[in-house]
Amino acid sequence: xxxxxxxLDLSIQEKKSCLVVGLDPVLDRLPxxxxxxxxxxxxxxxxxxxxxxxxxxxxxxxxxxxxxxxAVAVKPNAGFFERFGAVGWDCLRQVSEYAAKQGLLVxxxxxxxxxxxxxxxxxxxxxxxxxxxxxPVTDAVTLNPYLGEDSLRPFIDRCSAGKGLFLLVRTSNPxxxxxxELDVGxxxxxxxxxxxxxxxxxxxxxxxxxxxxxxxxGATAPEQAAxxxxxxxxxxxxxxxxxxxxxxxxxxAPFFIEGGRGVVVxxxxxxxxxFDGKEGxxxxxxxxxxxxxxxxxxxxxxQSG
Length: 305
Fold this sequence. Notes:
The protein has 305 residues and is α/β, with parallel strands linked by helices. 42% of the residues lie in helices and 16% in strands. Helix 2 packs across helix 3, helix 3 packs parallel to helix 5 (86-101) and helix 6 packs parallel to helix 7.
């Protein structure tokens, strides 16, 4: 399979979009017509997880149809599916397969991080080729690097088979600074981690000059992003925090490299629930929100680097 960084970079250029839509489905916020279609799932009642997973699948397939013309990827967050047990895991796989069929790359937001055989098992399940698992349909996965290289090696080894990684470096949540900004030898910890990412990703660069071993850097930390970019000039940045979390497109210029490359920006709630308080087809509202986000980001991307 073609190098993940090459595939992602090419998709951005062809679609003129760096938008990723996060799939973080919350039952209480699904359109009433979707919930009514399967019977409103009430926690604790027999079969409620099956109905919840079914409603989630219906909703997200509609979202994918609406955003496919405007986004390069979707980022399903595993936690929002795992809470429904086995049927939730099946829903995650089916939604990912549907997104892939619509021409979208799939970034599984799993934030795995463990050692030895456990890391190898996670890598096989998320990026492997076993039928009926996420592996065959997932293009990239998010990882927690704080257990060191041996926890990441089984995933890094998959990059040669066309898979991609995004390692947490400077996240968008308010308390991320509690650890990531700690002074370590006169500089913040996140920069130490960025340098390790550079080492771990050595030799993985694609033909288009970018590396499939990328990083997660929040839109709410533009100054830190500029520092990370100096350390990682070839890495792809996955940028959460745009939209509902307060990060604006105008703050993203330091994230890009020359030619407005090397960045994908995630938007979740502001796209998924764009229909809140509006009349008409909820899918149209989702599609319009994705289109607006794409245009907003393109203004910055095309003027950056």
